[in-house]
Design a protein that fits this description.
The complex is a heterodimer of chains A (466) and B (490). With 466 residues, chain A is mostly helical. Chain A contains 19 helices and no strands. In chain B, α4 packs antiparallel against α6. Chain B starts with 6 loop residues before the first helix and ends with a helix. The chains are: A mainly alpha (466), B mainly alpha (490).
């Protein structure tokens, strides 16, 4: 390992050291300090990753700082930092004590950062599973609430099955190609059926991760049970990581013809069922869970085109989705007192009694609905544009119609926030860390919505070499 | 004037910036209200100054133009342009916003700063539609203006305000998304043909579009625009939204928001898809005439004054659709002029209904009666604007409707005859309304106070413009002459 390798992997080193440091030194410090240090380390790593120029050659076995990593690591780092800031107050109210929470978040971030750096399937798989492993712990972290433990167990069981299936798929691909290195994945003649089977299993595993219909059943329960900030992180980074996983594999000679139908169905069903089921939800976190299923359907739509436009759309949409969902779950977390604020009607009048958080939640809803001038509109525009350009016109029009329907359930939340009288259950005042994080996310939504050019440039450079 | 100064951007975003500042003044509602009105007046003054000081129009008809790169990845540009048609509608927008503010001066008592801020935000959204020359930019404003309007109806409305707000939003939003698909399709076709990917109107008009594809695209546009217009089978959101919105919201909805759809038909849809437009002309004729007759017919059956004016608005918008469908210089001039007239007259009628219901909390026309003797000033304006709406010669609506009918009669006499029947029906419901409110005997005695100075000034300014456009429409017709000649030449 040369010095330049160390420089290019500095983000990983920072995050790795930070997670150990937090775990070891945590007991001797206040949680507040630990949180701030953790968030600072995450931001530093993200900044580092953005500043270092990417290399495509593998300096180390299995790891390289690729252009894709340069794009994804800052996104993940910012998401983790914001989650830490958002969860501090929430954890105090819910008596989630101790340094293991920030330590696990940063460990999760470490795994997230490794994922796009992977240059062979083994590293890739290990990173994906390490992310999932951190979330098994995080989801069950709220010991005071039985639903949290239930959600943790549910996620663990489903996740273990998904991991096994994915691993089996990767093993079949290995059997078919004879190599683990991603760059060398080309199918020799005669092994086509093994490869196709391998891809099928990988797709099933990732469908679980992305909660694509019909592998979505765990999602609403887990989102509802998990602490709100964790649900925010889970719904964004782990989904985006799953999509990146698929993207990295798809870049190398997949059996595209065979994959088309499964991807088509996954996308169609997710967009349809996600949006239709969200219409009937009365709990905001469950509604957001179904909404995330639908959004992953849009993402799959862009992915299945197999074009450069489509992959750019996936990367852009992933980042935008991360920002808006963090805003939504962050606002929910901050508005929850000792218990979870769950029912949509519990948010009545909060647009006026808690202007900042209500406003951020409303903005996140409008953005998720894809209404300009928010980031969500730019994201949807790019996804549907790439789909139409990639020839998936029918599915794109279906998706757009479902997106139109989705406006209804997002608006319902806005209606509650601003057009219903406030209930008795007023939220606690907003802490500075929470306000800061929420303002950051809403600025992200508005700025990307009005001027997406810089982000689009970053997306282009992420696909430049990879 | 320095030609590089981004005057159009200033014109476009002044209300929005003012609106944000108004929200920051939330501690003192009275100051916020005054500040909002000053912003709206400044916007009107700026528009009027642009109209008088603008340099001569170039060969493209645009006398003010601004073009900056925006989202280069897709060739999306921030292109604003103002020609005669835009100018006329910008002035109407600025004027109606001032009227809307004056109307809500006393009516709105809760969350005053937010209310006025949203009115200003709506103004920016509408102006954006009138000034954009890039289809992406146009679409952005087209959708964005829904948000403040949704809040205006949902927070300050009355009756089933939540239902109406959501219905209004979903109808327009769903229609608009199909238009987005059509826009993307145009963009891709143009890019594939020329190699330059762009959303600029000036470039997209040169796209070669296969006939059937063009029909589909036109249908998507027509669906989106027809909802907001509203063309008759797509109007079912309108009575709810118009009735349940606060009075000023209704004035904005009917006075200017509806015009964005007519404008988009003239500016974008027809030039982009001329062949499909010709094919769809009979459909639009039918929609227009059915709208005129049906709107008038249903208006006649209404007991609720606001609902009556809402349906009469549908009826009058039919004339605009008729003029667009005929697409001759005379008819189109009539349509654009009628867009202004409709804004003034229907706006004024909604203002009057708002003032009456603010006084009594009652919108049943039969519960009023005998106002002619009791409140002479209000009664005068009521009679005046109803006569204008009925198309009395010498007042504004007459000129617009006359031009539309003359222009249409040459190309489609049947449609013109149908529309003429609508005018007769208009006379019927108007006279009945005037009879009920001003001259009948009330079922129970009702105390109505006459107009305050602010209210008289609001209505007088509308009336002055009504008379002016009625006897001397030449300035407006001169302004729109060049762009309309350019549009109808092709």
């Amino acid at each position: 390992m040369t010095f330049s390798d160390a420089i290019s992997l500095l983000p990983l080193i920072i995050v790795g050291v930070a997670s150990l440091l937090v775990l070891l030194a945590g007991p001797f410090c206040q949680v507040r300090v630990v949180t701030v240090v953790g968030a600072a380390a995450a931001l530093a790593a993200g900044f580092c990753a953005a500043a270092v120029s990417p290399v495509n050659s593998a300096g180390l076995p299995g790891l390289a700082f690729t252009p894709l990593a340069r794009y994804l690591i800052p996104v993940f780092c910012v998401a983790a930092a914001l989650t830490l800031l958002l969860s501090h107050g929430y954890n105090l109210r819910h008596e989630i004590r101790g340094e293991e929470y920030p330590a696990t978040v940063i460990f999760c971030l470490f795994a997230l950062c490794v994922l796009p750096c992977a240059t062979n399937m083994l590293t890739l798989f290990l990173a994906l599973e390490a992310v999932a492993f951190s979330f098994y712990v995080l989801v069950a972290m709220d010991l005071g609430r039985a639903e949290s433990a239930e959600a943790g167990l549910k996620y663990l069981l489903i996740g273990a099955v998904a991991a096994a299936v994915t691993a089996f798929g990767l093993a079949l691909i290995y059997a078919g190609t004879g190599t683990l290195a991603l760059g060398a994945l080309t199918a020799p003649a005669g092994f086509h059926s093994i490869l196709t089977a391998g891809w099928g299993f990988v797709l099933i595993g990732i469908a679980f991760k992305l909660s694509l219909v019909p592998a979505h059943l765990w999602t609403p329960d887990v989102y509802q049970g998990a602490p709100a900030p964790v649900a925010g992180l889970l719904s964004t980074t782990s989904k985006f990581a799953g999509a990146a996983f698929l993207l990295m594999l798809l870049a190398f000679a997949p059996p595209r013809a065979e994959l088309h139908l499964p991807l088509y169905l996954l996308s169609l069903l997710s967009m349809g069922l996600g949006n239709l089921a969200a219409l009937r939800q009365t709990n905001l976190k469950r509604m957001l869970a179904y909404s995330s299923i639908a959004h992953m359907g849009y993402l799959t739509l862009a992915l299945m085109t197999g074009t450069r436009d489509g992959y750019s759309a996936v990367l852009l949409y992933g980042a935008i989705y991360t920002v808006m969902n963090l805003a939504a779950f962050g606002a929910v977390a901050s508005l929850s007192a000792n218990g979870e604020r769950g029912a949509i009607t519990d948010f009545a009048g909060l647009g006026f009694s808690a202007p900042l958080r209500g406003g951020v939640l409303a903005l996140a809803m409008l953005s998720l609905a894809g209404i300009p001038p928010t980031a969500g509109f730019i994201g949807k525009f790019f996804v549907f544009y790439s789909a139409i350009r990639g020839g998936e016109i029918v599915l794109a029009v279906i998706g757009i119609l479902f997106a139109a329907i989705s406006a209804y359930f997002y608006l319902r939340v806005v209606v509650q926030l601003y057009m219903r009288p406030a209930g008795a259950n007023l939220p606690k005042p907003c802490s500075r860390a929470e306000s800061f994080a929420l303002v950051c996310t809403s600025l992200g939504i508005v700025v990307i919505g009005i001027y997406p050019t810089p982000l689009l440039r970053l997306v282009e450079s992420a696909l430049a070499l990879g | 004037m320095n030609p590089d100064f981004p005057i159009l951007t200033l014109l476009l975003f002044l209300p929005l910036v003012g609106g944000v500042s108004v929200v920051l003044l939330w501690r003192s509602p009275a100051t916020a209200r005054v500040f909002a009105l000053l912003t709206a007046l400044a916007e009107l003054a700026l528009g009027a100054w642009l109209g008088s000081a603008a340099p001569a129009a170039g060969p493209t008809g645009y006398f003010l133009y601004q073009d900056l790169p925006w989202i280069e990845r897709f060739g999306i540009r921030y292109t604003l342009g103002m020609d005669g048609i835009s100018l006329v509608l910008v002035l109407l927008t600025a004027f109606i916003t001032v009227i809307a503010m004056l109307l809500s001066w006393q009516e709105i008592k809760e969350r005053v700063p937010l209310y006025f801020a949203l009115l200003l935000a709506t103004e920016t959204g509408i102006l954006g539609v009138f000034l954009s020359l890039d289809l992406f930019l146009f679409y952005l404003f087209w959708e964005a203006m829904l948000i403040p309007m949704f809040f205006l109806i949902g927070i300050w409305g009355n009756g089933r305000k939540l239902y109406s707000a959501v219905k209004f939003f979903l109808y327009t939003f769903i229609g608009s998304l199909l238009m987005l698909v059509a826009i993307i399709a145009l963009y891709l076709m143009h890019g594939a043909q020329t190699g330059s990917y762009s959303f600029a109107l000036a470039e997209l008009v040169h796209t070669q579009i296969p006939y059937t594809t063009g029909l589909w695209l036109f249908a998507a546009f027509l669906l989106a625009l027809g909802v907001k217009f509203p063309l008759v089978p797509l109007h079912s959101w309108l009575p709810d939204a118009y009735c349940d919105a606060p009075s000023a919201g209704t004035v904005v909805l009917a006075g200017i928001l509806a015009k964005t759809a007519a404008y988009a038909l003239i500016r974008f849809t027809y030039p982009l898809l001329p062949d499909a437009a010709r094919a769809f002309t009979p459909v639009i004729y039918v929609c227009a005439v059915v709208g005129i007759v049906y709107g008038a017919w249903i208006a006649f059956a209404q007991k609720d004054m606001k609902r009556l004016v809402a349906y009469s608005s549908v009826s009058h918008m039919g004339f605009i659709a008729l003029g667009i469908a005929a697409w001759s210089p005379v008819a189109l001039s009539g349509a654009v002029l009628q867009m202004v007239n409709h804004g003034i007259t229907t706006g004024a009628l909604f203002v009057l209904v708002g003032m009456l219901s603010e006084r009594t909390g009652d919108r049943e026309s039969l519960n009023y009666g005998g106002l002619w003797g009791k409140v002479p000033v209000l009664a005068f304006f009521f009679l005046f604007f109803n006569m204008a709406s009925a198309g009395l010669p010498g007042l504004n609506n007459f000129v617009g409707e006359f031009l539309v009918l003359v222009g249409t009669f040459r190309v489609a006499p049947g449609a013109a005859l149908g529309a003429f029947l609508g005018i007769v029906l208009t006379l019927v419901y108007t006279v009945r309304l005037v009879q009920d409110i001003l001259f009948g005997t009330p079922s129970q005695p009702m105390s109505v106070s006459d107009l305050s100075l602010r209210e008289s000034a609001t209505l007088a300014s509308l009336a002055v413009i009504g008379v002016y456009l009625g006897v001397h429409p030449a300035p407006v017709l001169d302004l729109i002459k060049v762009p309309i000649a350019l549009l109808t030449k092709a």
